[in-house]
Each structure stands twice: as structure tokens, then as C-alpha cells.
Amino acid sequence: MTLxxxxxxxxxxxxxxxxxxxxxxxxxxxxxxxAARELYDGYNSGKALVxxxxxxxxxxxxxxxxxxxTTQMAAARKALHNIERLADKGxxxxxxxxACEKLLKQVQEGSAEALEKACRVAVQEKSRYxxxxxxxxxxxxxxxxxxxxxxxKDADVIGYRWKLSTRHPVYDVxxxxxxxxxxxxGAGVFPKDKAPSLPxxxxxxxxxxxxYEGDLNAQQLEAYKSGKSRAKQAGDTYLKSVSQTRRQxxxxxxxxxxxxxxxxxQRYMRGWSGLHNPxxxxxxxxxxxxIEASKSSIILPDIKxxxxxxxxxxxxxxxxxxxxxxGYKQSNxxxxxxxxxxHLNESxxxxxxxxxFGMRYEYIxxxxxxxxxxxxVLTAWIEDGEQKRLTSVYVTKRKVTT
Length: 402
Hints:
Blueprint: H1 12-27, H2 32-39, H3 57-64, H4 70-75, H5 77-90, H6 94-109, H7 112-151, E1 157-163, H8 173-179, E2 189-191, E3 195-196, E4 207-212, H9 218-226, H10 231-241, H11 244-260, E5 275-276, H12 279-283, E6 298-299, H13 303-309, H14 316-326, H15 333-343, E7 350-354, E8 359-368, E9 374-384, E10 387-396
Parallel strand pairs: 6-10
Antiparallel strand pairs: 1-2, 1-4, 3-5, 7-8, 8-9, 9-10
Helix pairs in contact: 2-7, 3-5, 5-6, 6-7
């Protein structure tokens, strides 16, 4: 089991307790709803393996605002906008949406006591949602391991066909995996040793089904036997077939621009982790393995490194600082990305407020660079749906986040 990064940097004891609970619920063949309630049921139930989620800064601002204080309510105007957005369409579950609607109403019309109660309900529903997300993601991952273990031994299976979940509400990389013909075997079909990782992202319910020789025509069989990947070309073809808005949903605004200028879409595709031999993880898996965090909730766009932080023309001061302090420049930017990823701990993300486009975070870490020297690096992030996306990175003299 590889626990999601959405555990928010839980300490070792909490992680072990969650792993044990998830494993037990899987063995009991429990529904994801009942399994999630074992992680966190809230409302004084006593079941709270998942840490209770803190109110975001904008909810804290609303909580401090009192009906009748014009100054405080004016200060909370942005907060009201964010809650209204969540209550309208941004909340990921029906119960959390209802909690946000109630909170919005109490802020505008209710007493301080009613507001306090509404805030508590919102916190409980957010915490429940986190438990739901962990369970659904890990059950999907457990299913995938079982599927690959079984299908991988079947000599008649030559590949896998992508199957979009009937509960797939948001347009994302899963839609591309269904439509793109990356190996000439047909849209959404992959050879046995080059399949997408499952789940592709938190809450992903999409899956794969077996593909047999008889499912392919003569031309597709020839392509299968050649084993040649056409991922880049297939991705380009798919991206050209969709609207600019769709491309921005998949690649981000900067990524869509970079792709239009000739960059490889694989650098920017949200949720894309490449194609892998799924049997590799199973071959090395044992129950004593250390449970490592998935990086599926983190986005580090290449453009932020090669197009800004390490670009001696666009950001000469930042680029010079990185080269002198840590030995990083555009030619080895991937080493810097890997270094940052290896040091990430979501429990150390510091909230910096929501400017209307999502919660912003800051995290300062000490890195040992390509030149063997140490320096502190500040990373800035923004909440992007289910993920955190890097917005800025630079060398700093400020203290490391603790």
C-alpha cells in the first residue's frame, strides 16, 4: 500500500494506525463509506485516526467576523466570496457543500453562536472528506494491484484498455488516456509493459480491462509487435483536437502556452506520471515495505524552472543565485525538481491566505545542491483542485520552515 500524500504529513504513529485500519477494512471487503468512517467519523464519535482539518485562513476570517461589525464584515468580504464559491459548485461532496451553504447563511444572518456551530460542521465535513479521499484512493490502488497481479500472469492478455469511471465528474488526464492512441493499438489501449499507473489521481475511480489479441485488427497487431511508443505524437494529436479551455485544464495556463510553442506536453500534463510496467512494483512489494507517500497531489511545472527560476534572461538574479549556491541551471533543472520533491512534507506547508484563486502556501527547505553546497530554497504553492501546484521557487536566506 502506498498512502496518499493527502495524509497531510501525518506522523509515524498516525500513519501506522491508518495503514492498519485501511488494510483491515480491505480484508473485510468493506464499502468505502464504512471504511472511511473507521478513519474519521467526527462529531464526537471518538473515531479520529485522520487529523481534524484546520479551518482555512479565509474561514478563520469569517469566524472572527461578527454580524453588526461593518469593519470586520468588510475585511471578510473575500472570505465570503470563497465560501459562496464552495457552496455553489466547488465543494467536492454533497455534505461539505451543504455545510458551506449553511456557513454562508449564518455569516450573513445568524448569531455568533449559530456561526460557531456552522464552522464546526464545516470542519467535521472537511475532515470526513479527507478520510473519504484516503479510503477511495487506497481501495482503487489495492484493486489495481490485484488486477495487474492476475492479468499479468495471463498469457492471452497482451495489453490493457482504459475504462473511464461512470463517476468521473471532472475533465482531466483520464479523458486523454481514453482517447489517445499512444501505441497504435487503438484509442486507450496500452501494451502489458507500458500502462498508466492506477489510481491516476486522488479519488480516481477509472480502471483498466484486459485486451486480447483478437481485440486488435492486423494493423494494430503490427503496431503492438513493434512495441514503439507514440505517446508524444498521440498526446499532441489529442490536444490539437480539444479547445483551448480544455488544454488549460490539462496543462495549466503556462503549460498550454509552452506546448503551443513546441514544448513536450508530458512535462506539464496534470496527473501524468508516464507509462510503466505495472508488474515492477508487485515484484518488489512485501508487507514489510516502508509506506512511502505518493506525489500525485503535487505539481511542479517545468516552466517554473526552465522558463523562470533558472532562466538567466527572464530571472537573472534567481538564476545566478541557484547556480552559485547550489549548482543548478537550466541544463540540470530536473535534478532540482527531484531534490525538492524528495524533501516535501505537507505538514510543513504554511498557509498564506486565499486571494480568490485558491489557498496559497509557502515552504522553505534546506537543500544540498549539485555542487555539494547547502542553501535554503523557498517554494510557493497554490491549491489547484485536489493538488498543490508550484508557483515560485528561489534561493533565500530566510529560515527553514519547521
